[in-house]
Amino acid sequence: MNEHKNVNALPRRQFIALSGAVGAATLLTGAGATGSAAATDDPGRGESPCTCPVPPTSPPGSGQSPCPPSQMQALCGSLTDNDPLWRDVQYCTRGIVPPAPQPKPDCLKTTPNYVVLHGKPETQHNYLLLPSCRITGIECPFLVTSGVANYWNDAWENARSGGGVPVQYPDIGLGINSKGARRFDQMHIHLAGVRASTQRRLQELDTMGRMATHPAQWAATANQAPITGTGGSGDRTYRILKLTDLRQNLFALLNQYVVRPNGLSMADQTLIVVPKTTATGVAGFYVLNSDTSLHGGTSTCDYLLVYA
Q1: Which stretches in the chain have pLDDT values below 50?
Q2: Dihedral Cα 224, 226, 227, 231, nearest 10 deg
Q3: CB contact set of 221 (below 8 Å; sequence gap of 6+)
Q4: Cα(177)–Cα(173) distance, integer angstroms
Q5: pLDDT for position 41
C-alpha cells in the first residue's frame, strides 16, 4: 500500500494543554507487547465513496473532545502518519482521499469524536469505531486522562440493538487489541458478536461470585477465570470486572487498578466488553482484561469475538 503523499495538507490541530501530560507519558512508557498472540486485526474498507457530511476543519466539528497534546505524539502518533486506518479517518472527517491502491472507506457514521467503518470480513456483526483524534492504540497515555472521549460507551451506543450501527448478532462483544496483536496503528474498537457459550460462561461466573464488582478487586486472582475461545482456540484466562454501565473511563480503570500496581505495560493489554443480557434487556457489563503475563493469558480480543 502506497504512503500518503500530501502530508502538508493537514493543518495543525489546536491541542489543549494538559497538566502533567509529559509525566503521564513517561509513566506509561513500557516494553512493547510480547507478540505471542497472533496479529489478526484486518479491518476492511468498502469501495463506495463517503456519503456522510464532511466537518469543515480540524478539530472536526464543534463539541469534539480534546485530542492528545503534541508532547504525546511519540506515544500517540503524529498527524502526518500514514497508517491506513488513520487515512480512512481523515477521509471520513476531512475528505482527504487515500492514495492508490487503498480504496475509499465506507463511512458508516461520522461524528466530531469518532467514525464507524466496516471490519473485515465485511459482515453485519463486524464494525470498527475509530477516534477522530490521532491515537495509535491502547498504549497512548492520553486515553487514561479525564479529557478523553468515552469511546467504549460510544461503541456500545452504536453496537446495541437500535444503535447507530447495530451489530446484528444474538450476543454482542466489543474489544481492543494490544499493540503487538494489531495490524494497524490507529486506535479501533471492534464491534462484533460473541458466542452464546461466552455469554453463558460469564453469567455462570457472575452467579459464582467469580468476578470483581469494584475496580480495586479487578486484578485479584479470585477474579480471574478461563473462558473458551472461538474456533477451537481453547481456554484463555481473563481478569473479569462487572460494571452497571460504561460511564467510567475503562482505560483509566485498567491502568489504575491492574497495570500500574502489577508493573505491567498498557501496550500489552487487551480489553473486551460483553453486555450481560437477560430476558428483560441489558443488566450491566462484563469487562474482561488479559495479557500474556497471566498463566494462559492473551493480549488479543480476537479469541472471544466473532467477526465472520
Answers
A1: 1-40, 42-62
A2: 140
A3: none
A4: 13
A5: 52
Grid cell, residue 304, equals 472471544
Cα torsion 179, 193, 67, 85: sign = positive
What does residue 15 show for φ and ψ, rounded to 5 degrees? -90, 150
Helix, strand, coil percentages in the chain from 3-state DSSP, rounded to 5? 25, 20, 55
Q: For residue 143, what is its C-alpha cell?
A: 486515553
Cell triple for 231: 474456533
What pLDDT does 60 receive? 39
End-to-end CA gap in the chain: 24
82-100 per-residue burial string, b: 16 or more CB within 10 A, e: under 16: bbbbbbbbbbbbbebebee
Residue in the structure block whose three cell numbers are 498504549: 139
Determine the pLDDT at residue 63: 63
